[in-house]
Every structure is written in structure tokens, then in C-alpha cells.
Specification:
It is a single chain. The chain has 3 helices and 58 strands. About 0% of the residues lie in helices and about 45% in strands. It has about 850 residues and is mostly beta strands. The strands form 11 sheets. Strands 46, 47, 49, 54, 55, 56 and 58 form a 7-stranded antiparallel sheet that branches. Strands 19, 21, 22, 35, 36 and 38 form a 6-stranded antiparallel sheet that branches.
Amino acid sequence: MRVATSAFTLAGLTLTGVMAGVTPASAGPEVGSEQFRPAYHYTPAKNWMNDPNGMIFHKGVYHLFYQHNPSGNTWGNMSWGHATSKDLVHWQEQPLALSTDAQEDVFSGSIVVDKDNTTGFGTKENPPLVAVYTSAYKEPSPNRGLQAQSLAYSLDDGQTWTKYSGNPVLNRNSANFRDPKVFWYDNPSGGGYWVMTAVESQDHKVLLYKSGNLKDWTALSEFGPANASGGQWECPDMFPLAVDGDTNNIKWVMVVNINPGGVAGGSAGQYFVGNFDGTTFTSETTKPATAAPAGTVLAGFNDGTYSGWTVNNEPGNWKNGPFGDAPAAGSLPGQNPVTQFGGTGLINSFNDGDWPLGSMQSPTFTVTDDYLNFLIGGGKHPRVSDKLDNTPPPGELKFDGFEVPDGTTLADAGWTGTGDLTPNFQPATSGGDFYLGAKRINTFETGTVPGDDRQGTLTSPEFPITKNFMSMLVGGGHRSADSGQTLAVQLLINGNVVRSLAGDNAGLLNWKGWDVSEFAGQNAQLRVVDQATGGWGHLTLDHVMLTDTPAVPRSDEETVNLVVNGQVVRTATGNDSETLDWASWNVKEFVGQQAQIKVVDNNRFGWGHILADEFTASSAAATSRLESYDWLDYGRDYYAAVSFANMPDNKRVMVGWMNNWDYANDIPTNPWRSAMSLPRDVQLTQTPDGPRLTQSAVKQVDDLAQKPSYADKKGGAVATGTTSLPASTSGQVQRVDITFAPGTAKKSGITVLGDGSSSTIIGYDAMTGKIFVDRTKSGNTAFHSAFSSVDDAPVALDTKGNVTLRIYVDRSSVEVFTGNGLQTITDQVFPNAGADKMGLFAEGGTAQLKSLTVTPMEQSMFLSGKK
């Protein structure tokens, strides 16, 4: 197993290496004061955390349990961590509650107070707390490979736990049956019973069961599939709420978390409003499959042919993939169900699985309408360049591409090294993808025992800089500057590091490089430095070249593109989902011109396929089905959200995991990974569309507010560009309340966590009618290709034409509440060290600030580590 450490020693590091800037990592900062450590969101002191579990209020104490790896800061060894609080903001980490063992991992679940001792685990005088959790059975178990529901109980108010000897108590012989959320249902006709909601994740179903004793369960009903079903369903919750506080108008809310396939990509939570009669949940908010606006169908693929499209399938595969010779009729062998396509056929590049590459292109057509609408699904791999192959650029190949003669090593070629990277171990002949030839440098396959913990340096002989650019294939891991670990390919001039780059936490090697024109005529060296341990603690390097042009990365895309005059002018990608959804391009500027549609499958790996159908020219834009559903949050980082049990006064407080499975294992925090969202008070309020959830941070969060550091009640014009705000607004731990009118600006709002070259942008887009969080230039975004994003949510201007936002900023996250709590956006951000500036901005016109208040927030976590 991998163990997260905050300091290590690099064996064999030479004095020369130290003098050149390669130094061992120092001891980590005090817990609570690390860069990116939240001040008022819950994080464990160290190691991995994901889904909140077993949240319950008991005897004046809030208990937060959660998925936890006690041995490292990536996912694994799933157990239940535990923390307690008396006010939902000051949390104390407790000993591990439920531990993985040889038979099972302990997956998500819930806790109830068995006040009538229905289980017999306690007594009437001392009723037990009972945890209902998913046993994910390991290979040594007779139930290996299955997921089933089990019990554990505590007789000391949650401090220690005993697993029930009769586990599992509910087994469907399924590999994907999990996440039980249990509550007591008082039957209006008399009596009551326990109700469990759990999921068959791949079937997109919530299963309801009943029990009188938590041990013996009988089926009640099923709910789903409904609305968003592009990924797997997880972590359900169901509870009643009074609409606008009217106890005579009770509705039930069904929460279903989904991954991938969320509205912003990857992980998200959706909800349904309806009724529960003790047996069946009936949704009133399930949306029918919508059709696109009327128009002229350019291609529907319903006649069994590609209707004149040119198909380029990669030769040499087992099947004629990726597209075959004719449209698919739906799912292909080995593929999960493909849904929401139109008619009887579609483009589906899963022929022969994800491996084959190819493209297909429509006949030329004239753009006649303002919009081109189409259905798209499959992998989320956007277009990044025109380069679809892996051919090297023209230039001068260095070091023979590491293709040294068999029986020799880089030591024979004049390389030097330290530690595990001594050159007699290199080059490697395994590891990575998209290398050229047979050999490459791979710091995983080095030393006496291969692995991510191999460390050292590897330095080339000198060579002259004869061209303006260097290009090379690089893969493997990435380490941020704050990690205390160096993992890089470095360019040395006179022994000094002048350029550096690394991988993207991926096995694929891709083209990267530097502008080296300023060093023309000088001698240089290339050095590989690996001080990294743990996941992706290695680098791969191949085909280093001096070139006349900058490096162009290979586009490992799954895309639909519009080509005009030989140039791609519009592009779209899937959402890691087999459920197709409408996409729309505004093509007004191309009306009357000739165009083609090009579908590209250039990715061999996970979600390496594309789905497309029903290309239609129309005078109106199609609306995304995904965006029409009801979401708990429109950001990338609010997942597995469930509510506290046993709350007084029928309050409903929810907490979500503030992360996304797209990049969860890679966020640049150490020695912990992941935070929980702020606890949210959720209510139902009547809207023109029916009752919908509103959310706000619980009152205890706002009790952390200090005296405002800045208040502007008069406002004023916000000119085009970005206007810096006074130093009194600066900070990384604060609440921001802003009201502004977009005016003539196309986009307007506020920037936070800025430093002049980077910031997180939060604003309103008048063209789309949405608020947004733009984290594309928010600081460290390079640790994973899926992290950089602009996330948005539809919001109506108020009767005065204003937008009002409440923003909680906490070092490595923003939580934005607007529309009286009807819309929220939660996003992690990892700002540059010291980035704490704030500004106002407007684009394409002038906006009007109405009011702005900036309020520092007290630190409530790790107070001993406060600086």
C-alpha cells in the first residue's frame, strides 16, 4: 500500500546535485497551516477522505463519519473515519470507527439511533447506535466480488463499534448494490418501520426496503432510471420537507448522486421532488426526453448507412473499428446501454472497444440556418490541437531517441546519475504509452526494485543549443511546487536549471517543450529529477528533439467538429456518458458558406469512444437535457451529499464531499486529500416550476464571521477590464457578499484569490443568463487535465435587474450561493502561494456595482496550527 509522507530522504543525492538546486524535501508545516488547508471546512489531519457517511445528531453532538484510507492519501483500504462537533464548524477528529479487514472494505452507509432497541444490540435504557454500511467483499471472503449491506453497533455513543456477527443482513448477489441510507418511517395508518434506500448503481435504480429490526429486510419498490443516468447512481437519500414551512404541504425529496455524468462533468448530485406513501416514491420532477427544435435533418443515420460520409477506420485491429461500415443500432458488444439517441441508428465508435482510432467526415453542405443542433455522448476528451498522430516534428533528434544498442545502457552513452537513477538502469523497455521505438527513460522501471518510490537524478552529456525550440515526449507524474517533492525534466545551462516540465499524472506520453532561443549557441544538459514518492511518483521521457517550431501536443480527443475552409471552427465532446444529450452551435457567422462535420475518435483508453446523432440545421438552439434537471450543485466539487439523521425540529442539513472523481486522487494537497463542503440548511420553496430545494450555509458558519474588512454600500460603475479592490478586501478566508447589475456588460462580477497573473473569476454571463465560476487561471490547474473548467448555473435577474452572490472563500475552495439559494456552485481552486487579491471586472460593456461586503471568517479547524 502507498503511504503518504510529508518528508523523505533522497538516498545517494550528491553534493553537486544539492548545489544545482536538487534538495531533499524538508519537514512539513504544522498541521492546519499548510498551503491549501481549509480554515473552516472539515479535513482529516492526514490521508484520504471521500463520501460523508453515517451523519447523525446524538445527545447534543454532531457525528460525521466518512470514507477514509487510514494508510495513505489516495483511495484505498476503505474504512470509516470519524469526527465530532457541537456546532457543525469546530470538528474534532476521532479514532477510526469501522476498519477494513481481510474480508471486506467498509463502503458508504448511514447510522440510526435504535431508540426502541429493535435490533437487540443494546437495552431500552441504553439503545444502540446502529451503522448500516456496504460490505465490499474481498478475495478471501466467500462473498468475494459482491456488495451487500451489513450492520455494526455502538453502545458508547459512537466511540467504539462492533460489527454484527450475522452480516450481511441484505445480499442481492450483486457487485454494485451499495450505499444504504436508513430512516424510521411513521406509518400514518399506525405502526412504523425502518426504510432503506440503496442503489443498484449500474442499473440507475434506487431500491427501497423495509424492516422492523434492521436485520430482516423485505423489498418495497424501485425508483429509476430517471433524469440524469449517464454514469452510475450512488449515495441516495430520501426525506420529507414542508414546502415554505407549511406542515400541511409535505413533499418528499429523493437525492441521487451520479458519477460520471454530472451537469458540470464528472461527479454531481441530482434530486427529485415527489411523494412517498410508505412503499413507493413517486417523482413529480422527472423530465421527459426532449426533442430538438424543428429543422432540416442533415444526418440521422436511420437508413442503415452512413449516407455518403467518408469513414476512416484504423487498420490492423480485431474488428473494423472504431466506426465499422454502418451506423450502430444502439449499444455494441461490451458496452453499457446507450440511450437517448434518435431513430434507429447513430454514430458509435465503440466497435472493437475503446482501442481503435479513426475519423469520419460528412459530405460538404451549405450552412443555411443560425444553429446546428446534434446529439452527443461518449468520452469527455476535448480537442487540444490539430495534431492527431504521434509523429515527431522536423528537427534534430538527440541521444538517438534512447535507442542505445542492445546490451548497453545510458552509462555507455555518457549519462551520469544518482540514487536509483544511476544510468546503468536506463533506458527502460516497458511502461508508458505513445513512446517511439522500443526504449525510453522511465523512472518507475529503475533501481533494484521498480516502483513509484524510486528516487534519484539522471543527467545527460552536454549538447549545443542549435535551434529555437526543444520538443520531447513526456509522461508520468506531476508534482506542484508546494508538495515538497521534485519530479521534472530540467534543462541546465552552466549547471543552472533554466527550464522544467513534467507529466500530467497519466501513462500517455505527449509532446511538450520549451522556447530555448535565448540560449542559442550555448551548451546545455538535460536532467531527470525524481524525488517523488507515492502515486504517479515517476516520469517517462522519450524522443528529445531540437526543432524550429514550438511543440504541439497530440490531441487525444473524442470530438464532433465543424470544419469551414479547412479549419475547425466549432468543437464539442462527450460527458463520459452513454446517454446522448443535445448540443448546439451558433453558426450565424458561417451562413452561406460551405462546411463539413468531422467526428474524431483519437483516444485508446477509458471513455475512448464518441457517440453522435441527429445533426439538424435549425433557427433555434437545442437545450441540453442535462441542464434541465434539478441539481444539488452546479459546480464540479459537491458529491455524495446526504443529510444528517436524528436532527431536532425536522431540520435537514446536508454535507457533500468537496471533490470530483475525475481528478480526486490528484489534487495537490498533502498530507491530506479532500475536504467536506460547508453544512447546508436545505428547505423546499415553491417556484413557478413547483417546489424546489433552496440551500444556505448553516447559521453556525456565519457565526464565524468577524467584523467586515470592507463595505461599499454605494457602488458605482464597473468599467471594462478588471479593477483592483483595496487591500482591505484581500484574504483567503472570508465571506463575500456582492450585488451588481450586468448593465451593458456581456460578463461581469468579481475575482478572488488573485495575484495579478491568476485569479478565480466569479460572475454573470448576460449572453447565457448564467452565473459562472471560471477556474481556468486560478493557480495550479496542471495536476490533472480534467481540472480546468468554467462551471455555470442558470439564474434569473431580480426585479431590479441585479445579481446577488454570497461567496464563501476558504483557501482552496469557493462555494457560491445565489437565486435565494436555488442555485449553488462549489469548486475547488488551488491558488498560487500568497494569491489573495480581489477585483471587479466587466467585459464588453459597463456593469454597475450595487453593494459589496467582505467579511473575514474565523478559523474553526486545527486552531493549534493557526498562523
